[in-house]
Amino acid sequence: MEIMSNGRGAILTLDDSRSIALDSDDPNALACVSHAHMDHLSGFGSRSAITTEETKLILSARGFRLRNHMRLGFGESTDLGSGLKVSVHPSGHMLGSAVFEVEVDGMKVLYTGDLNTEPSILHDPAWSTDAEVLVIESTYGSPVYRFKERDLVYSEIVRWIREVLRDGRIPAFNVYAAGKAQEIIALVNQSIKVPVLVSRRVGSVASVYKRTYPWLDYVVEGSRSASEVLRDGCLVYVSDRVSQFEGLRLSWAVATGWALTRSFGEFDAAFPLSSHADFAGLIDYVNSVSPRVVVTMYGHSSVFASHLRRLGRRAFSLDEIRNVRML
Ligand SMILES: [Zn+2]
Predict the structure, then answer these.
(1) CATH assignment of 2-145+276-325, given 2.70.70.10, 3.60.15.10, 1.25.40.10, 2.60.120.260?
(2) Which of 86, 107, 85 is nearest to 1 (CA)?
(3) Largest CA distance in the chain
(4) CA-to-CA dists, residue 23 to 29, 175, 207, 226, 244, angstroms
(5) What angle do CA 25, 30, 31 make, to 5 degrees?
C-alpha cells in the first residue's frame, strides 16, 4: 500500500492497484470528500465520490453541482468488493465533516480530513478507533498552538458583544461562511437575546445547518425582516466579508485559530476560536488511534511529523515525502 501527494490532498493506492483519493482528484480513483470547505473539494472531479448528505447539501447551497457521488451517514459503510470497505464517522470540524475509515483485507487506514478533538456548541469531538495507518491533518501541528478552553473563548466573545452593544455599535464577525459563521450564530442565540443578521452566503449554509439544529435563529441580509432588524439597530452581524451599513457603526472581529500567532490589527477584536484540533489535541488523537504509521498533511505537517518521530512514532509528512510506502 502506498500514499502519495499530488499537491491537493492524497492518493492511497492499494496493492491491487485500486486507488482512493483523499480530498484529492484522480479521475480513476474513488474520492473521499471529507467536508464542504473549498480546499478539500478536488475529489468532486473524480468519476465517483463518497461524502455525507450534509456535505452534499452545503455544497449544493454554495452552487456546486455534484455528480456520481455516494452519500453515507455517520456510522454507515459501503463494501467496495475484494476486501475493501469504507466507513464514515464524525470529525467534529463542521456539519457533515467526516473521518474516513478504509478497511483493506482487515487492515485499517484512517483519514481525518480536518478534525476537532474538543466539543463545540454544535459538534461532538472527532470519532477515533485503532488503525494501522493514520493520515492526519496538521493545520495547527506546532507546539505554539495551544488553544484555551472553548468555553473561555465563548465567554470572551459574548463579553465583547455586550460591550460593543453597550457602546451603541454593532458587533460584526468576518468569518468563514461555512462552519464558523454558524457556530457564532449558535453562540449568540444561546447567550444573548439579540437578533443575528447574516450575509446571504452565510444564510445559505445556515439553512442546511437548520435541518440538524432547527433552533438556529437568524435573518438573512436583503430580506424584509433584515430591514426591520437594521432599523432597530440592536443586532449581531455575521458575514463572510467586511462591509458597512449606512448610518450604523460596526465593530469588526475575526474568530480563527490563527489569532494566536498572527496580527489582525485591521480588526477591533480577534478571538482564537478554531474548528481544528490544536497541537495537544492532535497528539492525543494519534495516541488514541495508536497507528504503526502516521502520515501528516496540511499546515504544519513537517513540524508535526518530526515531533511524532521524537515521540517514537513512524511518521512522514506528505509535504516532505511525496510518496510513502506504508506497510
Ligand atoms: Zn475545513
Answers:
(1) 3.60.15.10
(2) 107
(3) 65
(4) 11, 23, 25, 37, 36
(5) 50
Q: From the CA of 82, how far away is ligand 1's center (Å)?
A: 32
| Tens digits of residue pLDDT in 233-252 | 999 999 999 998 888 899 99
The rounded Å distance from CA 37 to ligand 1 centre is 5
The H or E element containing residue 203 is helix 200-212
Q: Is the model's pLDDT at 327 over the cut of 70?
A: no
Q: Which CATH class is domain 150-271?
A: alpha beta
CB atoms within 5 A of ion ligand 1 belong to 37, 114
Q: Average model confidence (pLDDT) for the chain?
A: 94
CA distances from 224 to 201, 215, 218, 220, 231 (A): 17, 20, 13, 9, 11
